[in-house]
Amino acid sequence: MKPVWIVDDDRSIRWVMEKALSREGIAFNSFSSAQEALDALSDASPEVLVSDIRMPGRSGLELLQAVKQRHPAVPVIVMTAYSDLDSAVAAFQGGAYEYLPKPFDVDQAVDLIRRALEESRRESEALEPALESKDILGQAPAMQEVFRAIGRLSQSSATVLITGESGTGKELVARALHRHSARAQKPFIAINTAAMPKDLLESELFGHERGSFTGAQQQRRGRFEQAEGGTLFLDEIGDMPAELQTRLLRVLSDGSFYRVGGHQQMKINVRIIAATHQNLEQRVRDGAFREDLYHRLNVIRLRLPSLRERPDDIPLLSKHFLGASAKQLGVEPKRLSEDALAHLARLEFRGNVRQLESLCHWLTVMAPGQVIDTGDLPPEFRNQGSAASTDWLSALEHEADRRLARGESGILEALNRQFERALIGKALARTGGRRIEAANLLGMGRNTITRKIQELGIEGDVDNSDNSGSGS
Predict the structure, then answer these.
(1) What is the residue range of 61's domain?
(2) Could you count the other beta carbons within 10 Å of the beta carbon of residue 399?
(3) Are the C-beta atoms of residues 367 and 334 closer than 8 Å to each other?
(4) CA 396 to chain centroid
């Protein structure tokens, strides 16, 4: 965790704050002037800045401006013995988190710093990690189409609606759209609109003014303001409460909104990317989602395929996730055997890529050897695979899904050949290669089975001396 910076030319104030923060276990650095802090800013940044306003040389307001330019998410608390209105207004206009008049109660000052630390961490978690973004992996035709769409949208700021089952990687695609856009150097802010109650969600999105509700002890910027110039990702948009759908529609219409309890209209320049696992058209028909908002969001639609539609990507994804888990745990990466990969390709994976990632992490920790076989899988995966393998129709459906996802043509003919070859081969094996008996078991004539054997290239011990029976 980064330290709190204390900037004050009064040595006694610095001493009191240092003792209080030390007692609370909060890391800090102290500076006797704004210039010292500005010099340090070139190599480091604080978690929270606490600065006097009036000091010899550079003022605290100048320091506030410099910090906000370089690190806009850092909360700045300004303190001064000159409790005049002009200083307070100037501090808040410059983006100060809170104003602390001297003399102040030390315990209250520490409480304020704690709240500022929580705010700083909350905003930091919302920002995209520039060097830790995950890659989207996939070689299946359905994923290649997603990659092409990301490329086509790289120079656009159009609103995008991403649909797909849970666990397919909708946020990864949203981050990729941001990373490859002209807004890449600006913030990427993500929020799950289904993860919090309506009142809290409204404050999270639009911010609030001090005193606007119980517990609102200071002004707070919402996600729209945090994303200024960049991208706001609204996950699980289908679960957004009706009242907030109306407010969101206004923002999408004219780029303006009011903070909770505020009277000043805010204007923002933000690209909206929304995502849902639900059928929004059905939600509109059910009256649970505004039709006008749906049309505002559904400018460009990207559908992410389920893992069941891209089983050919399972080896690639598994290798990536096993490698990532091994790196995280500091061990050698394990690998899946061919039988285990074939088994996984037949599974349902209702949790999609996220479920596969969790499985790979479990295997890294729990599988006994470096090569993972089917028997090393958790029981629920082994049992699911056994059921699928005994259900030939289910296996056929999986194979059809796989080929369709790859964009193959002539699927019916290819599968028919494999079907006939398997049946005739098994019948011949049962009869010791005697064609007439095999033909009778299968319900076909001798001439037909002879022709099929030649066409399908069936090898084996076939009794060619058996020349009785009727043709068909």
Answers:
(1) 4-125
(2) 17
(3) yes
(4) 33
